[in-house]
Amino acid sequence: MTEPQKQETELTGPEAIARVKELVEDIDFTMLTTKDPAGNLVSRPMSTRQMDDAGDIWFFTLDQTKKVAEAEADPEHDVGLAYIDPKGHRYVSVAGRATVVHDHGKMKELYSSDLEIWFEDGLDTPGIALLRVTPVECEFWEPRHSKVVMAAGMLKALVTKDTPDDNMRHGRVTC
To answer: Residue 8's pLDDT is what?
Structure first.
């Protein structure tokens, strides 16, 4: 595929932002990556509560966790989010900045009973907080065609020994 064709099919701007929001909220679980004190990248699963209209991505946490300490220790509070839906071939990467938020109204808005597995006393759990990730750069990849069309294209490429058609749609947003 030539570079001009690739640029024509890449989503940017408001359309890409809207698609990132849909994917992030639909895929739900992400791997949140921080740097530990030794400088190693470490990741852990997190459940997304919301990507708001400003683009911020919200999670529940506890104040006294390694992820909070690591995010706050980084001078820029840099974190990464990796959303993966292998069955649907959908992927989102977010580079962002993390902030711990103690806004009871926002917590009440985002809280649901399924969180009680982690927060036994609900919103009264000592140290409960929100982790807000403000994206700096987002990218996503998803199928351009249905699974049947993608499978046919891959089969054709195997038989003809050609490179498969570019079946993935890509979007990029610098926030």
So the answer is: 46
Burial 108-130 (b: 16+ CB within 10 A, else e): eebbeeebeeebeeeeeeeebbb
- What letter does residue 11 receive in the DSSP assignment? B
Residue (of 96, 80, 99, 91) closest to 20 by Cα position: 91
Tell which residue, 32, 39, 61, has the closest CA to residue 135.
Answer: 32
Q: How many CB atoms lie within 10 A of CB 142?
A: 19
pLDDT by 10-residue block (mean), the chain, 175 residues = 47 86 95 96 97 95 96 94 95 97 97 94 96 96 67 55 71 86
Q: Is 48 helix (H, G, I), strand (E, B) or coil?
A: coil
**Could you tell me the maximum CA-CA distance found in the chain, to the nearest angstrom?**
62
Both tokens of 26, joined, read: 């639909």
Locate tokens 């679980």: which residue?
A: 29
Distance between CA atoms of residues 132 and 36, nearest Å: 19
Residues 76, 116 contacting (CB under 8 angstroms):
no
Q: What is the pTM of this model?
A: 0.83
